[in-house]
Amino acid sequence: MDSMFVQQLRRSRHLVVLLLLLNMLTLALLAGGEYGAGVVALQLVLLIGTAALLFMLRNRSMTAAVTHAQEPVLALDPNTGIATENWFRHMLALECRRAVREFAPLTVMRISLGEHTKREHLLEVIRVLSEELSRPGDLIGWETDLDLGAVLPCTNEHAEQLTERCYRHIREHSSNPDLSVWLVAQTYQPRGDLNLSKVSQQLEQKMLEARQEAPGVFYSAEAATDPATPSMTYTDG
What we know:
The protein has helices at 4-11, 13-32, 37-70, 85-102, 119-132, 159-173, 196-210; strands at residues 106-112, 139-142, 148-153, 182-188, 216-221. By secondary structure, it is an alpha+beta fold.
């Protein structure tokens, strides 16, 4: 991975390239003997400007690198109490690997409330989800800047009923009768291709398709590959 200095230098490459070309041009004029005091002064200004630009980029990259290294890794969003987007994705990747290793199905939800949801309505949804998804290992967090997500390890054939119950309780306990809720969920079987990228891409596509329709529940499940029932499951009701 490129250093932050290299990344910033690339973003400023047009200015750097322009300064270097002007330096080469003035050097060529000086070498050909066709120059006066103005060309010499221009050469000095260009050299000073190029050195100042590189020095500024280096200092900014070093400062940003130190600041980034000292930032704590937040697992919970202090405003909502649920997992941050980075932590949610990190845990989802771990649960994908765990599901394959332990040969247990994994259900992942994604909940969209639109773009202008009030904080009180968001917290109502989070409270309902926290009450419904309370087993050890269940995780609620930010899937994106606007959408919520939930990871449910070791789910069984009752995952669809659970999804519908979550949606129903969200609607029942919301103080906003016009709140739009799109709840997309899929149960994945523990196959070798189960990973963060696959889950994220599929749920993103399903949510895009769901948002073209009326709010509701959009559940799907991969075909089971093993009739064995995981030891930690939800029950209907």
